[in-house]
């Protein structure tokens, strides 16, 4: 599991049924100084994250498949499982305020979302 910043989206008109109706986001892995590393994932979004959001990514395939209800099979490696509101440790350099969506916006969005 790691903290990352959403940097883009992936659009695919033809994809595995597991990904139907799900957003795929490019997430840059951050180091402990809050800076992007050379690593990234294309992750399935289950929390309505957006470009610029600081997110918590589960990048272990078995656990990701469990979250998606596809255990033991499923072509999935990384899932965005949370939008980070605050990182609290001594000298924390993370800038959560750079997120593109506010908590209020995400909350109102969820209320209107179709199941």
CATH superfamily: EutN/Ccml
Kindly name the structural category: alpha+beta
Q: Roughly what is the average pLDDT, rounded to an integer?
A: 78
Predict the CATH topology.
OB fold (Dihydrolipoamide Acetyltransferase, E2P)
Order of helices and strands: EEEEHEH
Query: Which CATH first-tier class would you pick?
Result: Mainly Beta
Cα(first) to Cα(last) distance is: 27 Å
Tell me about the largest β-sheet: 5 strands, mixed, barrel
Question: What features would you highlight for this structure?
Answer:
disordered C terminus; 2 helices; 115 residues; single chain; OB fold (Dihydrolipoamide Acetyltransferase, E2P)
List the helices and strands and how they pair.
Blueprint: E1 2-10, E2 23-30, E3 36-45, E4 54-58, H1 61-67, E5 79-83, H2 103-112
Parallel strand pairs: 3-5
Antiparallel strand pairs: 1-2, 1-4, 2-3, 4-5
Structure, described:
- Helices cover 15% and strands 32% of the residues.
- With 115 residues, the protein is α+β, with helices and mostly antiparallel strands.
- The protein has a single domain (2-112), classed as OB fold (Dihydrolipoamide Acetyltransferase, E2P) (Beta Barrel), CATH 2.40.50.
- A five-stranded mixed barrel has the order 1-2-3-5-4.
- The longest helix is centred in the C-terminal third of the chain and has 10 residues, at 103-112.
- It is globular and about 45 Å long.
């Amino acid at each position: 599991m790691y903290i990352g910043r959403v940097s883009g989206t992936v659009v695919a008109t033809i994809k595995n049924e597991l990904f139907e109706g799900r957003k795929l986001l490019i997430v840059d892995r951050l180091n402990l100084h809050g800076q992007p590393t050379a690593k990234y994932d294309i992750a399935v979004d289950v929390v309505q994250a957006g470009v610029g959001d600081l997110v918590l990514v589960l990048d272990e395939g078995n656990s990701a498949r469990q979250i998606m209800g596809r255990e033991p099979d499923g072509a999935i490696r990384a899932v965005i499982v949370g939008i980070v509101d605050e990182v609290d440790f001594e000298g924390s350099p993370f800038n959560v305020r750079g997120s593109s969506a506010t908590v209020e916006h995400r909350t109102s969005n969820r209320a209107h979302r179709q199941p």
